[in-house]
Specification:
The structure is a single chain. By secondary structure, the chain is α/β, with parallel strands linked by helices. The chain has one domain: Class I glutamine amidotransferase (GATase) domain (Rossmann fold). It has 7 helices and 13 strands. Strand 11 and strand 12 form a beta hairpin. The radius of gyration is 17 Å and the shape is globular. The two termini are 16 Å apart.
Length: 244
């Protein structure tokens, strides 16, 4: 039996009067399995050494979507359109997961919030609210999840261009925040027609990171959906075979 790579996923964390809890939509775990990996939820471990011990056993990670990133991570206070930021315990967990993955070249797929986190944790910044802070945007979010769809124009020669064989792809869209300043270590891989950044990748091609603003785990277009999860699983399997 072929050993499947272990893919760690960062869940949301919520306080509750009866029981605090970590939560992750089943579309993530179901589709990691469909892509050939074994999903493992990464709990919000406070101790960095304990978290590193867990991460060393993983072959790849997914930084998942969630509530708005706390703007204090990029030197701002929450504005009127950022009423709900995620729990600080998730913030610490995600930051430590990303830093470990980046430093150890652990294959990473960063999705929506995770995409924004990767940029911010490396020194970039965000628009807190596209409609109120960005000039003449297209629709990036409607009332219901994933009802909004748009084209993303890919940069020639980018990782996603190579993976899809296309320079324009259609994706779902469910975000009201967006990349503002790109971290120095990253480069743009794709934008929507209004200029909003939808894809980031490392300038150092030896770092296996792909960041996308949409949700491939809930995407009906396989080219930018399940195929991105398959990319992560393959990168993770290759890494596991080398270290075995």
């Amino acid at each position: 039996m072929t050993k499947k790579p272990l893919i760690g996923l960062s869940p949301s964390f919520y306080e509750h009067k009866e029981m605090d809890r970590s939560i992750l939509g089943k579309s993530y775990t179901d589709n990691i399995q469909k892509a050939g990996g074994l999903p493992v939820l990464i709990p919000p471990i406070i101790d960095k050494q304990d978290l590193s011990q867990l991460l060393r056993r993983l072959d790849g990670v997914v930084l998942t979507g969630g509530d708005d990133l706390d703007p204090t991570y990029y030197g701002e206070q929450p504005g009127p359109k950022t009423p709900k930021v995620f729990h600080p315990r998730r913030g610490l967990n995600d930051k430590q997961i990303f830093e470990y993955a980046w430093e150890n070249k652990l294959p990473t797929l960063a999705i929506c919030l995770g995409f924004q986190e990767a940029n911010v944790f490396l020194g970039g910044s965000l628009y807190q609210d596209i409609p109120s802070q960005y000039n003449d945007p297209i629709i990036h979010k409607t009332g219901d999840w994933f009802d909004a769809r748009h084209q993303v124009q890919l940069e020639a020669g980018s990782l996603l261009h190579h993976l899809t064989g296309k320079l324009s792809v259609e994706t779902n869209s469910a975000h009201h925040q967006a990349i503002k300043t790109v971290a120095d270590q990253l480069k743009i891989g794709g934008r929507t027609e209004d200029g909003i950044i939808e894809v980031l990748e490392p300038r150092d091609a030896s770092i296996p990171l792909l960041g996308v603003q949409w949700h491939p785990e809930s995407e009906t277009n396989d080219v930018v959906g399940i195929n991105l999860l398959k990319w992560l699983v393959k990168q993770s399997a290759d890494r596991a075979s080398i270290s075995a």
